[in-house]
Amino acid sequence: MTTEYQYIKWEREGNIGILKFNRPETMNALGPEINGDMADFLPRLAQDEDLRVMILTGEGRAFCAGGNLDVFMGRSKMHREMGGAMPLYNNDMVRHFLKLPFPIIAAVNGPAIGGGITLSLAADLRIASEQASFGAVFTRVGLSPEYGSSFLLSRTVGLTRASEMVLTARIVDAAEALSIGLVSHVVPGDQLMDLARKLAGQIASLSPVAVRMAKRTLRNGMSCTLDQAIDYEELAETHCFSSLDHEEAVKAFVEKRKPNFVGR
Fold first, then answer.
1. What is the C-alpha end-to-end distance of the chain, expressed in Å?
2. Where does the chain have alpha helices with state H?
3. Is residue 108 within 8 Å of residue 86, measured between CB atoms?
4. Cβ(63)–Cβ(131) under 8 Å?
5. pLDDT higher for 202 or 86?
6. What is the pLDDT of residues 70-107, one digit of tens each?
7. What is the pLDDT of residue 70?
8. Rounded Cα–Cα distance for residues 156 and 167 (Å)
9. Could you give all domains of the chain from N- to C-terminal order, each with its CATH number?
């Protein structure tokens, strides 16, 4: 897979991938540059059967500072010139993230504002440096929640806290993010990627079949009834029971050795 992109960086460490927003001069603000690279890269990344987990972070001092204000102004100008309703705003980037079959760890190294916080919510785990901050600040720029945050934020921190974050548009620091369950760990900045790699290594050491199915099962459970969740679990468990990875895991446990998973 080619890694020659200007506005994102891709690194591979065995079966662990590291994807970085790479516009540090704009605090990794979203716009046609990053969005275009992501739109090309993510669908192809989803086809990588050897990748077991991905770390998402930002280059420089920010994770992602949200939308580019110049882009917002250009869109507003185009709307006025058209004299009518514009085509629907496209949220495909978050759909690309949500379709990735392997777990994502968001290592939030600095401000995650607007689109930055919403893309972190598309990850399965979020950890933060002490310098991180989070802001669902859409109303500050005359917008409403995007990128699935109207669904994901309330299911992560609860409706009351999500409503406060969105309706007041205030910034939440790393300590508060930890206290409300927005992130699971806060560490000094120079320890963030070490922790991300440690968590990624723990995930990568497990059965790829089971991990990918566990991710699907948890995501399915967010938007269905209990009976539907149990039905889905039964299908997922049947799939796992039939895998070579399950057989290898049981054999390794009985034989008191490290399993050798093949992802099938």
1. 22
2. 32-45, 69-82, 92-99, 115-121, 149-157, 159-168, 174-179, 192-204, 208-221, 226-241, 244-255
3. no
4. no
5. 202
6. 555 555 556 566 666 666 666 788 999 999 999 999 99
7. 55
8. 17
9. 8-204 (3.90.226.10), 208-255 (1.10.12.10)
The whole-chain average pLDDT of the chain stands at 91
pTM recorded for the entire structure: 0.90
User: Which 8-state DSSP code applies to residue 215?
Assistant: H
Closest C-alpha among 211, 155, 214, 197 to residue 57: 197
C-alpha–C-alpha distance, residues 37 and 30, integer Å: 11
Tell me which DSSP letter residue 25 carries. Answer: G
Q: How confident is the model at residue 141 (pLDDT cuts 50, 70, 90)?
A: confident
Q: 2 in helix, strand or coil?
A: coil
- In this structure, the strands spanning 125-129 and 171-173 are unpaired
Distance CA 137, CA 170 (A): 7
From the list 141, 152, 71, the residue with the least C-alpha distance to 119 is: 152
Distance from C-alpha of 229 to C-alpha of 217, rounded to nearest angstrom: 8
Which residue type is seen at 163?
Answer: S
